[in-house]
Amino acid sequence: MDVETSATGREALASVPNTPGAPKPDPIIVGDDITRTFGGLTAVDVEHLEIQRGVITALIGPNGAGKTTLFNLLTGFDKPDSGDWSFNGHRLAGLPAFKVARLGMVRTFQLTKVLSKLTVIENMRLGATGQRGERFWLSLLPPLWRPQEQENTERADELLRRFKLDAKREDFAGSLSGGQRKLLEMARALMVDPELIMLDEPMAGVNPALKQSLLGHVKSLRDEGRTVLFVEHDMDMVRDISDWVIVMAQGKIVAEGRPEQIMSDPAVIDAYLGAHHDADLSELDAASIEAEASAELDQEAKDD
Amino acid sequence: MDWGSIFSNAMASALGPDAIVYALAAIGLNVHFGYTGLLNFGQAGFMAVAAYGLAASVATWGLPFWVGIAIGFGAALLLALLLGVPTLRLRADYLAIATIASAEILRLVFGSVTLSDWFGGSNGRQQFADTFYDLNPYSSRLDFGLFSFSANDAWVFTVGWVLVALSCLAVWSLMRSPWGRVLKSIREDEDAVRSLGKNVFSYKMQALILGGMFGALAGFMLAIKQQSVIPTDYATDITFFAYTALLLGGAGRVLGPVIGAMIFWFLMTFLGGFFSSAASIDLIPDVVMSDIQASLVRFILVGAGLMALMIFRPQGIFGDRREIAIDGR
Q1: What are the ABC transporter domain coordinates in residue numbering (chain A) (predicted)?
Q2: Residue closest to A74 by CA, chosen among A91, A62, A57
Q3: CATH assignment at residue A233
Q4: CATH code reported for the domain at B3-327
């Protein structure tokens, strides 16, 4: 895990074809036939998925495309109807969320989950893995866990400095702003020292000033050799930092490719923004829209 | 009206066996609710299985007292596992429903006619605490000036407060450790804890068992102090009084349940004494309320006081105002 892997990872992507489910030279995640239905709605129906190691992969798609559901399935927070997927060759299907995290695949949440009534530094300490003091009987004997706690605290302080949260160290996490919470969640995930970090909408609710620094932080994750997979609606961010983009619509992967290719793919733009995204609404003829809508309705009635 | 005796009775009850029992029960609830966020509404059930485990072992089956204590703890452990395995993976409310129902089931089973050979039906079991009182070093009344305890009460008083102190020490040292940090984090957001690789189910189970053990201690003390177990002593109101004590003192604080239990019993006895003597000397005329009604007014007032506390000081006496303020965001 170093700068070299991420550079070779990006180069390797150059030869990957732009087809949905394209095989990657060095995948960290491989998934097959993952489906999840909610009642009659198929939220996720992914035939094949590979995530390249050491790069930043963006997962985009319109609202309701199944991005977050796929996140939940991959990390064990939700159970699929069918499917099989592996992380570093380790089968994950049926594994509970906490075991997935222990393997080195850690996620953040769309609605940030900071532990409000714990201080920032306690939030960070919680992230450390393999803590002796977290075992019931050992916790009663402080000399057995103090040195480890000290090491974890030093690592936490380092991360807090890197994410510019060191001034908030002793504040309750609940008193942080939305953007600071995103930062704290990311820093806390790093306490687990994950190989793959999955960010669910890291930019949602973050003010523009903080966005730039968040972008820098996400890039730095890649540059220290981690793999990043993130869900995002902010196209600027996707274009700016991702090495590979996967587009989902209605539960399926509809396109994959490097960001510049994806952004200019008319099929993707239509899927993502709708066919009328470029048209000025005032110039649209109301009558023609109405005709189009009623035609669609008729078609649906026939299909039924 | 005899203010002196009303006050000294109230003090005796704030420091006496009643407060000890409720303090121990509330310490258990503090581990469940205050630190882990588990809504256990069946602390009476944990107390009942422990008390009956002890009483039936000694009085029915003739086992030694200390074996009975071990059986009581074992029964509380079993109850925690039975309740936890199916419900701890679900949302918090399910545990609340399961615990309150099982506490009632247990009370009815212990009082049932069918099992009266074991548990003595509605008469319960007596004569099981002799070993405990044989160890009593006090031979005469223990006098505190304002009030005094009989030799037996003094022994319960001594052992009880030592147990409360040890329990507080245990809770304090657990909650300042990384183990306690995981529990507090689960209370805040269990998905976040899961995403960091902690086995949330296992921690909740450990918390349920630990709190159940404190409930078992409370059950033992209640059984021993009155040297009898009867089913009605383990009705659901004991759980809710323990919750009242906990919220009064401040949930999630080590000393909260102890101070809360003392204040709760002081108020209950003080108000009870005041109203019954006020009614008996016609300070409150019979048209307004009779003696019997007057003795119940204390419950109304304590309830109203708890409401006022929740409105004006929701964190309890020991709580941290800043922590509560965060919820409003």
Answers
A1: 29-275
A2: A91
A3: 3.40.50.300
A4: 1.10.3470
Residues of A in contact with B189 (CB under 8 A): 113-115
pLDDT surpasses 70 at B323: no
Domain range holding A49?
Answer: 3-114+176-303
Does residue A79 lie in a domain region?
A: yes
Distance of CA A18 to the CA centre of its chain: 21
Q: Answer yes or no: are the C-beta atoms of B197 and A192 closer than 8 Å.
A: yes
Cβ contacts from A onto B, under 8 A = 107
- The span from the CA of A194 to the CA of A175, in Å, is 27
DSSP letter (8 states) at residue A15? T
Residue A296 amino acid letter: E
Residues of chain A whose C-beta is under 8 A from some C-beta in B? 75, 77, 96-99, 101-102, 106-109, 113-118, 122, 125-127, 129, 131-136, 139-140, 142, 145, 149, 172, 174-175, 188-189, 191-192
Cβ atoms of B263 and B269 closer than 8 Å:
no
- My answer on whether A164 and A198 are in the same domain is no
Give residue limits of the domains in chain B.
Answer: 3-327
CA A120 to each of CA A85, A117, A158, A302, B99: distance values in angstroms, whole numbers, following the listed order: 34, 9, 13, 58, 34
Non-local (6+) Cβ contacts of A135 within 8 A are: B179
Pairwise CB contact (< 8 Å): A117 & B206: no
Rounded CA separation B71/B80 (Å):
14
Residues of A in contact with B205 (CB under 8 A): none
Unique residue bearing structure tokens 């949260």: A165
In Å, the largest CA–CA distance within chain A is: 78
Question: A168 with A290, same domain?
Answer: no
Q: In the numeric block, which tokens belong to residue A214?
A: 């968040």
The answer to whether residue B327 scores a pLDDT higher than 60 is no
Q: What's the pLDDT band for A4 if we cut at 50, 70, 90?
A: low
Residues A166 and A208 in one domain: no
Gap between the Cα atoms of A5 and A169, Å rounded: 33
* C-alpha to C-alpha distances, A8 to A13, A88, A214, A222, nearest whole angstrom: 9, 18, 24, 12
Same domain, residue pair A162 and A192 = no
Structure tokens at A209: 């000033």
In tens, the pLDDT along A261-295 reads: 887 777 777 776 666 666 666 656 667 777 777 88
ipTM attached to this prediction: 0.86
Establish if A168 belongs to a structural domain. Answer: yes
Torsion region of A152: left, alpha or beta (phi above 0 gives left; psi -120 to 50 gives alpha): alpha
